[in-house]
């Protein structure tokens, strides 16, 4: 599996677990009116998965732009200066 796809999947799953854990009581799936230990574990695991996924996505994008030239953030391709015509 490509690192970009794996990173995107980890990022989405991590965010889903994090949001579900943080809002478990509000959406009615929390068993405790307080912020319980299951929510704490889910928040930590979701945050770690999301951070790992983001790292993989950003790393795979930077590897694809490792050509000669300055990387253009907007266009996602290198900027190569044009030569001026000789007089």
Descriptive report:
The protein is mainly alpha-helical and 87 residues long. Helix 1 runs antiparallel to helix 3. The relative contact order is 0.18. It contains three helices and two strands. Helices cover 60% and strands 7% of the residues. The protein has a two-stranded antiparallel ribbon. It starts with a helix and ends in an 8-residue tail after the last strand. A hairpin with a 4-residue loop joins strand 1 and strand 2.
Largest sheet: 2 strands, antiparallel
Classify the secondary structure makeup into a structural class: mainly alpha
Count of helix runs: 3
| Radius of gyration over C-alpha positions, nearest whole angstrom | 21 Å
User: Could you give the count of β-strands?
Assistant: 2
Q: Which key terms come to mind for this protein?
A:
mainly alpha, 87 residues, two-stranded antiparallel sheet, 3 helices
Chain-wise SSE layout:
Blueprint: H1 3-22, H2 24-27, H3 37-64, E1 70-72, E2 77-79
Antiparallel strand pairs: 1-2
Helix pairs in contact: 1-3
Question: In summary, what is this structure?
Answer:
By secondary structure, the protein is mainly alpha-helical.
């Amino acid at each position: 599996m490509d690192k970009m796809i794996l990173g995107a999947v980890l990022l989405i799953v991590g965010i889903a677990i994090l949001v579900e854990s943080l809002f478990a009581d509000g959406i009615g799936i929390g068993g405790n009116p307080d912020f319980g230990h299951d929510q704490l574990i889910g928040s930590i695991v979701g945050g770690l998965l999301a951070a790992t996924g983001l790292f993989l996505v950003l790393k795979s994008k930077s590897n694809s732009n490792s050509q000669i030239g300055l990387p253009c953030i907007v266009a996602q391709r290198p900027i190569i200066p044009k030569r001026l015509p000789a007089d």
